[in-house]
Amino acid sequence: MTGTPPGTGCPWVRTPPRTYEITVQGHLDDHWSDRLGGLRIERRGDGTSVLTGHVVDQAGLHGVLSGLRDIGVVLLEVRALSEDAVPPPR
Fold first, then answer.
1. CA-CA distance, 44 to 27, in Å (whole number)?
2. How far is 22 from 75, CA to CA, in rounded Å?
3. What string of DSSP letters covers the chain?
4. What is the C-alpha separation between 13 and 2, in angstroms, rounded?
5. Where are the domains of the chain?
6. What is the pLDDT of residues 8-31, one digit of tens each?
7. What is the per-residue pLDDT for 21?
8. Ramachandran area for residue 30 (φ above 0: left; ψ -120 to 50: alpha; else beta)
9. pTM, 2 dp
10. Which site in 25, 33, 61, 87 is 20 to 30 Å from 3, CA atoms measured?
C-alpha cells in the first residue's frame, strides 16, 4: 500500500481538506447550514443558492451532497476552489 500517489481513488488514501462551492436551484434558508456541514449559504438573484466552505475529505463532501439530496434540492454544480479564491468568512 505504499507508493500510491494521493488522490488516486484508493480507499486508504485520505484526501486533504478542500474548499468547495456548491450551486443549487432555489433559495436555501440559513438554518440548513448546520445540516450541510456548516457551509456558508449565499442566495443569488438568479434564484440559486451557493454553498461555500471547507470540507474535511471526500466522505464529508458526500455527506453534504447526501444532505442536499435528502431535502430535495436540485444540484447544479460542484467546484473545488483554489485557496486563493476562497471568500472570507462572514
1. 8
2. 8
3. -TTPPTTS--TTPPPPPEEEEEEEESPPPGGGTTTTTT-EEEE-TTSEEEEEEEE-SHHHHHHHHHHHHHTTPPEEEEEEEPGGGPPPP-
4. 10
5. 18-83
6. 555 556 667 899 999 999 999 999
7. 97
8. alpha
9. 0.76
10. 61
- Torsion angle of alpha carbons 37, 78, 20, 28, nearest 10°? -50
Cβ neighbours of residue 87 under 8 Å, at least 6 residues apart? Answer: 40, 52
Mean pLDDT of 18-45: 96
Type of residue found at 76: L
Quickly name the fold that domain 18-83 has. Answer: Alpha-Beta Plaits (3.30.70)
Q: What is the pLDDT of residue 1?
A: 44
pLDDT over 70, % of the chain: 74
Q: What is the distance, to the nearest Å, from the Cα of residue 67 to the centroid of all Cα atoms in its chain?
A: 11
C-alpha grid cell for residue 70? 435528502
